[in-house]
Automatic annotation (TrEMBL):
A cellular component annotation (GO) from this entry: nucleus
Main location: nucleus
Domain ELYS-like: 42-261
Keyword Nucleus included in the entry's annotation: yes
Domain of life per record: Eukaryota
Organism per entry: Lepidopterella palustris CBS 459.81
Protein name: ELYS-like domain-containing protein
Places the protein is found: Nucleus
Keywords carried by this UniProt record: Nucleus
PANTHER family linked: ELYS PROTEIN (PTHR21583), PROTEIN ELYS (PTHR21583:SF8)
């Protein structure tokens, strides 16, 4: 059975990589890893060696057995903690484990032999699964309660950008479990758009919990995402949810400023949304006096017809500045 002995010297290549000469990476595995790197833009193995400052000299993935030997040497000869060397070697053995056909997985046998802490083992299984685009498996590992979040924004961003439609909720599960700090504005906005696509109201309250300019920016992003991302009945339903949000007075000002004067004025249905909001909140006088919406018809009904009907209902009150709207 091709498993490491109970006690091994990790500086000895043959004690770590107990594999036959023809069981290296091979062309198929090399191409798969290279393809995944192009998809993800950066592997989590790349992030590990970058953080640990191990100079792998672009040896991963190794094309030949000699490349693997050189990579092993660079890891064990680096000035990093022993457990970090174990982590990098474990990751490499994960690559090779499926090809060895042993009774015990090669990486698992190594982890036992070097007494790799369980939380590091779990973490590495998660990162390796991410690099193999196995997002459900990765999330199961990376949301384990024993883990101290590492690369949390990068992990969330990877799930947001690459998890397939059937795994769309994985990013939300990871966020709620790990609470990544969202230090990157790009990652924060990508997560917020994702949240807005799932639930307009939940996204609204998430934005409200942020402070100052960030709050306003996210509210504008919510409006943009709601009016821009979908079409047909789904956009209409989300639009209704948007105009029914319990906006504060300040948020109301931001809402109208964005859609009437700001960048949101170019969005499809921008002024229609303002009009709907005014009617939904009982600001009927403002709705009647709004000259920004024209006679475009929806199911043979135009805004001019709607405003005319509201105006007749208000009677002379529509011209009274003191009219109290409810």
């Amino acid at each position: 059975m091709l498993t490491p002995p109970a006690m091994i010297d990790i500086t000895e290549f043959n004690q770590v990589f107990t594999i036959p000469p023809d069981h290296g990476y091979g062309e198929r595995l090399y191409n798969e890893i290279s393809r995944n790197r192009r998809i993800l833009e950066k592997l989590f193995f790349d992030r590990l060696v970058e953080v640990l400052k191990v100079n792998t000299a672009n040896l991963y993935p190794p094309r030949t057995m000699q490349d693997l030997r050189d990579l092993h040497y660079r890891i064990v000869d680096s000035e990093i903690a022993l457990h970090n060397k174990h982590c990098l070697l474990f990751y490499l053995l994960k690559d090779l484990s499926p090809s060895t056909h042993t009774e015990t997985e090669l990486a698992a046998a190594f982890a036992h032999a070097v007494h790799l802490p369980a939380k590091l083992w779990t973490f590495l299984e998660g990162l390796w699964a991410l690099d193999r685009l196995q997002f459900q498996t990765a999330t199961d590992y990376l949301t384990h309660p024993s883990l101290i979040p590492t690369f949390p924004d990068d992990i969330l961003d990877t799930l947001l950008k690459h998890a397939k439609e059937e795994d769309a909720r994985l990013a939300l599960a990871y966020y709620h479990t790990v609470s990544p700090p969202l230090k990157s504005v790009e990652v924060r906005d990508r997560f917020f758009k994702y949240l807005a696509d799932i639930n307009v109201t939940e996204a609204f309250y998430w934005a409200r919990a942020r402070s100052g300019e960030e709050h306003r920016h996210l509210l504008e992003l919510l409006i943009q995402q709601t009016l821009h991302s979908f079409a047909g009945e789904k956009r209409a339903a989300r639009g209704v949810e948007l105009v029914d949000l319990p906006l504060s007075e300040e948020e109301e000002e931001w809402f109208e400023a964005y859609l009437i004067e700001g960048r949101g004025r170019l969005l499809h249905g921008a002024r229609d949304t303002v009009m709907m909001r005014r009617i939904a909140t009982g600001r009927l006088k403002e709705a009647v006096r709004d000259g920004g919406v024209k006679g475009r018809k929806y199911d043979d009904v135009s805004w001019e017809v709607v405003k005319d009907g509201i105006g007749r209902g208000l009677g002379p009150r529509k011209d009274e500045d003191s009219f109290m709207e409810v």
